[in-house]
UniProtKB/TrEMBL annotation:
This is DUF2236 domain-containing protein. It comes from the Bacteria. Transmembrane segments: none annotated. Signal peptide: none annotated. One of its GO terms (molecular function) is oxidoreductase activity. Residues 140-360 form the ER-bound oxygenase mpaB/mpaB'/Rubber oxygenase catalytic domain.
Length: 421
């Protein structure tokens, strides 16, 4: 038993876990706003620590079957079933049938109308929604180094921040397209692709010398997957609110419902799926009890992401090359400024970011978003038009991030733990 982490659960706590007593010490402001529930109970703490040893049983069981035989052939059957349905696979083996009987069935709680409303809300956020995902969810997440080590071990630093950001953005865009989470939508298909990659990482990364289960738990574990899916819901909503966007309680529920389904499809166990923004924020705070302090991975990943804007390519680059270069510098500084809204100087330094940055960008733009939101609500602006305009902004930004590269999600190369030779 790892008594240094004071864990009383079923298995020893990996050394990345913070002691229970530390998790109970909340800043006064957080306690006033969110109450004592922001700190995990002993039961919740032990559950999340134990979840560091838990993967995705349905996907991991299917992967065991795939790897027992002709892996390339069986992987081909899996891909065909994902894209065309299980009935498209001739004489589909029982393990494949069992897995797709699970994911093809809508969970009892799924409300597709509410989910589509969530899609509309996310689209209407426009480019600011992307800014929050990048500068709060992704960047701030790098402070939690327990999650980082699996990312680094898959070659994230070698791939480059622009490619990694583009792949994440592409998946996010697919999930937030109307109809994207229908059975044959791109969001549904690509989520199952990511689920496969996670399972392969769990299987193969543990055999590499750079991975230590006793320190980090298993790769792509339940606790880290919970934190990931909540970043797309609760963190997004908190960030846009702080940036002046008006979100109604119903819109909040719709966005959370969208990512609840995405999390379920990703392989997060139902006991970790939440319905409300506040419930999600509390659970996210509880997962931080299992995260180690910032280390070298935080600095490497944070610094790389901060410089990602310099790799963007906008359609007018060749027409106005000097202006394009100047604009990329503006984007670099505006992203840093938005991140500074959420982080202290010490945290900025831990991410390899300049500590002297001030949150000038949110200070300048937040009043405009508040005024625009008030006007739109008062004038009852057409939601579809707002969604369309916001989506166009998001597509424009995504194309710039990819530049001249193909728009796609992760395809593991020979050095990636999820590669099949």
């Amino acid at each position: 038993m790892n008594t240094s982490n004071n864990h009383t659960g079923a298995r020893p706590a990996p050394t990345r876990v913070r002691p229970f007593e530390i998790t109970q010490k909340l800043p006064r402001l957080q306690k006033m706003v969110f109450g004592k529930q922001l700190a995990p109970t002993r039961e919740r703490y032990d559950q999340l620590v134990d979840a560091l040893w838990q993967g995705d049983e349905p996907m991991d069981t299917l992967l065991d079957w795939i790897m027992e035989g002709n892996a390339r052939e069986r992987r081909g059957m899996y891909d065909k079933a994902v894209k065309e349905g299980i009935d498209a696979v001739d004489n589909a083996p029982q393990p494949l049938k069992d897995f797709f009987a699970l994911v093809d069935r809508d969970p009892d709680w799924l409300d597709r109308e509410l989910l589509e409303e969530g899609v509309g809300v996310v689209q209407s956020l426009g480019e600011f929604g992307l800014y929050i995902m990048r500068d709060q969810a992704l960047m701030v997440g790098y402070l939690l180094s327990g999650f980082n080590h699996a990312l680094v071990a898959t070659g994230a630093l070698n791939k480059g921040a622009s490619q990694r950001t583009g792949e994440t953005l592409k998946w996010w865009m697919d999930c937030t397209e109307h109809g994207g989470m229908e059975r044959f939508g791109e969001g549904f298909i690509n989520t199952l692709h990511v689920r496969w990659v996670h399972s392969m990482v769990r299987r193969h990364l543990q055999t590499r010398k750079e991975w230590d289960n006793n320190e980090w738990g298993i790769p792509a574990n339940q606790t880290d997957m919970v934190a990931t899916y909540l970043a797309f819901g609760s963190v997004l909503l908190l960030g846009v609110r702080l940036g002046g966007v008006i979100i109604t309680p119903h819109e909040s529920r719709a966005v959370m419902h969208l990512w609840k389904y995405a999390g379920w499809l990703m392989g997060v166990e139902e006991k970790w799926l939440v319905d409300s923004e506040m419930e999600g924020f509390r659970l996210l705070r509880h997962t931080q009890a299992t995260q180690s302090r910032p280390d070298w991975t935080s600095k490497e990943l944070g610094e790389a992401l901060s410089k990602e804007p310099f790799d963007r390519i906008y359609p007018w680059k060749n027409t106005f090359p000097r202006l394009h270069k100047l604009y990329l510098k503006y984007e670099y500084h505006s992203h840093l400024s938005l991140t500074r809204l959420f982080l202290s100087r010490e945290q900025m330094s831990a991410l390899g970011l300049p500590a002297w940055v001030l949150p000038w960008y949110p200070a300048m733009t937040t009043p405009l978003r508040i005024a625009r939101g008030v006007y739109q609500r008062a004038s009852r602006a057409d939601k579809r038009t707002l969604e369309k305009n916001g989506r166009e902004q998001q597509i424009y930004r995504m194309k710039a991030v990819f530049g001249e590269r193909e728009h796609g999600i992760i395809q593991p190369d020979k050095n990636h733990p999820a590669h099949i030779g």
